[in-house]
Design a protein that fits this description.
The protein has 7 helices and 10 strands. It is α/β, with parallel strands linked by helices. It has a single domain, classed as 3-Layer(aba) Sandwich (Rossmann fold). The structure holds S-adenosylmethionine.
């Protein structure tokens, strides 16, 4: 994340009200299909890109010890005031994660992995793999290809699925890109297209759950 991107997110979060989604509509609950995954989410959990806590609130309810990372200081400040409990860490991806190997039972990345060139996205995934314990759980949600209402097709497509507009990058994943992301070092548990209510609209996502396997 550049300083410009950080300023962009700080401005977004300074003006945004927190709107919560009903637990049964939340992507994590809809993707979660096995009991082992629930156990992982009740352990040490790293959240990447917590924003104002859309997913953090769900994760706190699931009983884990949460470390929530974001590149926006404003988001972290507002969320820490509203939701004490998690450890909040200011960190800008794709810089290497400031955590030891195998430190977490689960990593959750809700709408935070789709801002990068593919090379950086893979570097982040390697870091996620490194900080997860063997067999640890990864849950992610990313923009779905074709979601014009949320920006698909705007600006210039600088890589397949990655659009540059208003000085920012935004990737939209199709199923093949999701599978490619999880092809090496992961045992895919679930991959599904979902619609989630956001800001009065339905946002199209791909959501996935996978276990860490050897690379
Ligand atoms: C669409 S929001 C998602 C927030 C929250 N997970 C949710 O679903 O509402 C994307 C989040 O990723 C964070 N983010 C974007 N680029 C980042 C980067 N390079 N490093 C760290 N966080 C970043 C933003 O600050 C923002 O909180």
């Amino acid at each position: 994340m550049t300083g410009e991107d950080a300023a962009f997110w700080d401005e977004v979060f300074a003006g945004l009200e927190v709107v919560e989604v009903a637990a049964e509509e939340h992507w994590i609950g809809r993707v979660l299909v096995d009991a082992e995954a629930r156990v992982a989410l009740a352990g040490q959990v790293l959240e990447l890109g917590c924003g104002l806590g859309w997913d953090t609130r769900w994760l706190v309810q699931a009983g884990g010890q949460i470390t929530a990372v974001d590149g926006s200081a404003v988001a972290l400040e507002r969320l820490a005031a509203a939701l004490p409990g998690p450890d909040y860490v200011h960190h800008r991806l794709p810089a290497p994660l400031p955590f030891p190997d195998a430190a977490f039972d689960a990593v959750v990345a809700g709408l935070s992995l789709h801002y990068f060139p593919w090379r950086d996205t893979l570097a982040i995934m390697q870091e996620v793999h490194r900080v997860l314990r063997p067999g640890g759980l990864l849950m992610l949600a990313v923009n779905a290809s074709g979601d014009a209402e949320f920006g698909y097709g705007r600006g210039v497509e600088i890589e397949p699925g990655l659009f540059a507009f208003d000085g920012h990058l935004k990737r939209f994943f199709d199923e093949e890109a999701c599978r490619r992301l999880l092809a090496t070092g992961w045992k895919l548990l679930t991959l599904m297209p979902l619609n989630e209510p956001r800001y009065g609209r339905l946002k199209r996502l791909w959501a996935a759950a996978a276990y860490k396997s050897s690379q």
